[in-house]
Amino acid sequence: MSPNVTITHLSDLTPPSQERTWLTAPHPTLPIVATCSSDKTIRVYSLTNFTLLSTITGGHKRSVRTAAWKPHMSGESVLATGSFDATVGIWRRWDNYGREDGAGMGMTNDNNQTPTDTSDADSADREEDEEEWRFAVLLDGHDSEVKSVSWSASGMLLATCSRDKSIWIWEDLDDGDNNFETVAVMQEHSGDVKCVSWHPSEECLASGSYDDTIRLWREDLDDWGQVACIKGHGGTVWFLDWEGDDAEKWNGPISDSNSESELSALQAQWRSQRALSGPRLISCSDDRTVRVWRRQPKESQQMGAFSSATTGIPSIIRPTGTDEAWEEDAVLPHAHELPVYAVAWSKRTGLVASTGADGRIAIYEERFVTPEKEEKQDDADAMDTASSDVLRTEWVLVGIQDGAHGIYEINHVAWAKRADRGSGGEEEVLVSTADDGSVKVWTVTR
Amino acid sequence: MAEMQNSNPTILNAADLPTRLRPTTTRKSEYGGIFTSALPLAPVDFESPPSSDSEDDNLLEEPIDEQEIYDLISSISDPEHPISLGELAVVSLPDIMIKPTLPDVPDSPLQTVTVLITPTITHCSLATVIGLGVRVRLEQSLPSRFRMDVRIKEGTHSTGDEVNKQLADKERVAAALENGALMGVIAKMMETCH
C-alpha cells in the first residue's frame, strides 16, 4: 500500500466534553454538528470556528448514544437523539446561530467576520428564551438502550433501534403539535440492533445487529417487513452507511492509468450498471472488517425467481416479490486490529473512512482495475470486486492516521462540508469522535 | 441470589497465591507474633507507608506486568461466596497476558490485557457478572492506553461464546456501568480489593 491521501488535523471542537463522546452528526445544510456524550448532554458545535454553540441538557437520564438531523427543514432545525435511558428525544431550534454570533452560518464561505466580533451579552440574553433548543417530544416505546436513530430521505419517517432487538419506525405527522405515530415495530433481529440507516432516496431501511446480520426493510402493501438478511460478518455489525445516490456529485471510482476516452467509457458503463442495482451499502464490524454489499439488479433477480423459484416462497403469498438478493461486493483491505465502530462513505468524493477501538482512522478509495493490471495481479488479489466480466473495481487503502485521538478509542467518524475560513468551496472535512470526549476535524487531501 | 450455584467450591490457600503485595500482609499475620519482641517499639504502619504518594507515582511510570494485573483482580470477591477470585482460581497468573495492541506500529503505547476466566462450574450463570467485575476493575485501575480482553477460558463454560460476546461489547459494558442494580453487585465484589 502506498498512502496517497494526506490526513491533516484541522482543529478540535472546543471546549470538549469531559466524558466519553459517542457520535457527532453533521447538519445536512448548516455548518454545525451535534455531539452525543455520556454526560447526558448533546453539544452543538460550529464547523466555522470549531467552538461550542449550545449544550442541550435536561432531556435524557443516561448517556446520549446517537443523534440525527431531520432533513429538508428550513428556518428551523430538528434533532432526534437516542439515549441509554431507552427514550428518543426530539429537539427544535430556530436557525439563527449565524445571525447572532457572526460566525457565518450560511453555506457561503465569504463571511470574514471572526466569531467574537458581534457576539455580546445583549444578543446572548435576547436569544435565551425564544432562540434556544426547545424540547419537543419524548418518543417512548423501547425497553432498553436506544443505539441508533435515522431519518428517511424525505424526513417523514424516523427509525430507532435498541438493545431490546427491535426497530421502530415513527412517522412525523408534522401537525405542528409534535405528534409522532408508530408505523411499525420489527423484531426479527435476534440480538441488539446496533445501527439503522435509511437508503439515500428510497424508503428502504438497513439495520445492523449484535446477531452479526444486516437486514433490509421495506413497506409492502401497508406492512413493513424484512426484504433481505445479509450474513457475512463474523461479529456484531456496528455501523452502516450508504453509497451516494447523486451521480452529479461523484462520477464513480477513479482510474489512474486510462486515457480520458477510455475512462469516460468505463465510467458510463459503470454508472449504468450501478443505476440497475442502486446505491451500495457499507458495513463495519467487531470482526475487524469493512464490507461493501450490492443488491442484485431487480431484472435478473426477478427472472431468476420466476424460473427456479429460488426464494422458496409460493408466489401467492408474496405476489409482488419484495425479497431482494444482496451479495458481497468487496471486503476492504485490512486496516484495523480491533473492532471497527464506524464507517462513512463520502457522498461527494466516494472516499470511505473507518475507525474503531484501535484509535486509527483509515481512508479507502475505489479504483477501476484495468485489464493489464489484472493480468499482473492474476489470482493473488482477493480485493477485486467482480460483479461483471467486463468491469472490475478494487478498494485501495490510501491513508492511515494512527493514534488520531492519542491513546483513546474512536467511536465515530463522519464526512461534513468544510466551512472554516481557509476553505474554498466544495471541500470536505472528516469529523472523529472519541472516548475522552474529544471531537477532531481533519482535512483529507489527495 | 436465592440458591447458590456452587455451594462447595475448591479453595486455594491465600498464602500460596502469587502476589507482590504479600510481604506486607504476610509479615503482619504470620511472623508478627514471633518477631514482636525484636521489633522496635515504634508501631510500624504497614497499611499506609509514609511514602505512599511518591510510590504510587513511581508505579505509574513502571511498566505494568501480569503480576500487577493479577494483584488488581485476584482480590475481587466472588458474587456468591465471600472468597476471592484468586482463592477460587477463577483468575490465575498464567491466564493473564499483556501484548502490544498494534504490533505493526512499534511506537504505539497501546497494550491489550487478556484475562482468561475459569468459572467454578461450567454452567455458572454468574460468569458474566464475574467477567464484568474484572473488566470494570481493570478499566478503573489501568491507564486508558490499555485495551481489555476479558474472556471465559475455552472449554470451561457451557455458554462461553455468549458470555465473551457480551464482555467484549463496549456499548453493553458502558450501559451496564449506568445500571444501578448491577453496579451495586460489582461494588460489593470489589469491597475486598486493596
TrEMBL record, chain A:
Signal peptide: none annotated. One of its GO terms (cellular component) is cytosolic [4Fe-4S] assembly targeting complex. It comes from the Eukaryota. One of its GO terms (biological process) is iron-sulfur cluster assembly. SUPFAM superfamilies: WD40 repeat-like. It holds the Pfam family WD40. InterPro entries: CIAO1/Cia1, WD40/YVTN_repeat-like_dom_sf, WD40_PAC1, WD40_repeat_dom_sf, WD40_rpt. Keywords: Repeat, WD repeat. Essential component of the cytosolic iron-sulfur (Fe/S) protein assembly machinery. Required for the maturation of extramitochondrial Fe/S proteins. This is Probable cytosolic iron-sulfur protein assembly protein 1. It comes from Penicillium roqueforti (strain FM164). The lineage of its organism: Eukaryota, Fungi, Dikarya, Ascomycota, Pezizomycotina.
TrEMBL record, chain B:
Residues 66-144 form the MIP18 family-like domain. Gene3D superfamilies: 6.10.250.1280, Fe-S cluster assembly (FSCA) (3.30.300.130). Residues 1-27 are annotated as: Disordered. The keyword Cell inner membrane does not apply. InterPro entries: FSCA_dom_sf (IPR034904), MIP18 (IPR039796), MIP18-like (IPR002744). Residues 17-26 have a biased composition (Low complexity). GO terms for biological process: chromosome segregation; protein maturation. Belongs to the MIP18 family. This is MIP18 family-like domain-containing protein. It comes from Penicillium roqueforti (strain FM164).
